[in-house]
Structure formats: structure tokens, C-alpha cells
Amino acid sequence: xxxxxxxxxxxxxxxxxxxxxxxxxxxxxxxxxxxxxxxxxxxxxxxxxxxxxxxxxxxxxxxxxxxxxxxxxxxxxxxxxxxxxxxxxxxxxxxxxxxxxxxxxxxxxxxxxxxxxxxxxxxxxxxxxxxxxxxxxxxxxxxxxxxxxxxxxxxxxxxxxxxxxxxxxxxxxxxxxxxxxxxxxxxxxxxxxxxxxxxxxxxxxxxxxxxxxxxxxxxxxxxx
Length: 224
Description:
It is globular, with a radius of gyration of 17 Å. It has six helices and eight strands. An eight-stranded mixed sheet has the order 1-2-3-4-5-6-8-7, with helices on both faces. The protein has helices at 29-40, 45-49, 60-72, 120-136, 150-158, 187-201; strands at 17-18, 22-26, 77-83, 88-99, 104-112, 140-146, 162-173, 176-186. The protein is an alpha+beta fold. A hairpin with a 4-residue loop joins strand 4 (88-99) and strand 5. The longest helix is centred in the middle third of the chain and has 17 residues, at 120-136. Helix 1 (29-40) packs across helix 3 (60-72) and helix 4 (120-136) packs antiparallel against helix 6 (187-201).
């Protein structure tokens, strides 16, 4: 495939992204600080941070330092994940490793708190960021994680990524070796996946208790 007219992708901006169940808001220490701290701390804090480069915050002041630093970052560009049913910030994620020349970016630094984990809120949080990236002109949408992180690898497959392989001894995180598993979705694949997400996320796919009628993984078919 020739790309003689390729002019690169646009840079992302600090804008809100709105869905049925989820709103992604540019991370703001004042607006999101207290709610986000409640979501990422407590008895599950160590588990939530197990695979992340940052450790569980030991105090509100320590978390504030992370918030201020992260809110100022352009890459990763951090967003708070808002559960629209409560209006509360229940997690965060970043648009990162942005390569405008080649049209490559990825979602990372994901921490979805216990109240929204494995729900339509988090699935839509992924969808909103992915769709935004492809509208900016992304050609390759990456997912990478510790090769030992089985929940993350299952999530990548459910979201429609294709496994590409493992980089051995790729990084040193928290004083330990990390082999990195790589996944990707290309722009050619996204349009088909996008339609499947839209069908799954439609309100009529959920009963009055919010339980899905059809599983997203069943709608990915051979593209898993």
C-alpha cells in the first residue's frame, strides 16, 4: 500500500469525550482529585497498581504530586474516567506514545477502579479513546503490557486487538524485568470493529439491570 499522500496524524487535545455511560475528561487535580484518590486507594490499591509503573499512593499528598505532574503531561495525555450514572471519577487512562509522523499511538496507564471494572463504563472508555485516536489519523493503535499480566492480555483480545509477539527483557519496572506483550489494531480494521462496538454499546443491548444481552467478544469473530 502506497502512502504518497500521507501527511501524518493530528495531535490530540485536552477535550472531553462523551458516550452513553462514560465521559472522558482531561485530568484536573482540582476537579478529579478527591474522587480519583478514593477510587485508586484503599484495600485494593496494591492490586490496582500491580502492573503499573507508578506505585499505590501512600497518602493524599503523595497522590496530589502524581496528579499535578500527570495533568501537565502531554504524552501521556491523561483523562479521568467518569461514570455518568454517578458523575464520579472512578478511574484514569492515558493516550500515549504519540507518533504523529507515522500515525501511531496507544492507550496506557489504565487504572479502572473497582466500581467500574469489567463494566460497560470501561468498555466505552476504551472505545471513546480509540475512536478519537482514529479520527486524528492513527494508523496503528497499540496495546502493550507485561507478558505475565493475563487480565490485560485477555482485555486486549476482547477489545479486538491482534497479538504480535513478546519483546523479551524489554523494560525494568519497579526493579524487575518486564517482557512486553504487543497487540495492535490498524486503521483498516477499525471501521469493522467500530460498528461492533456501537452495536454492543447501544442502550438496547442492556437489560434494566445493565446486564449485556450479547457479549462483545462474540461480536469480534475472527478478528480476535
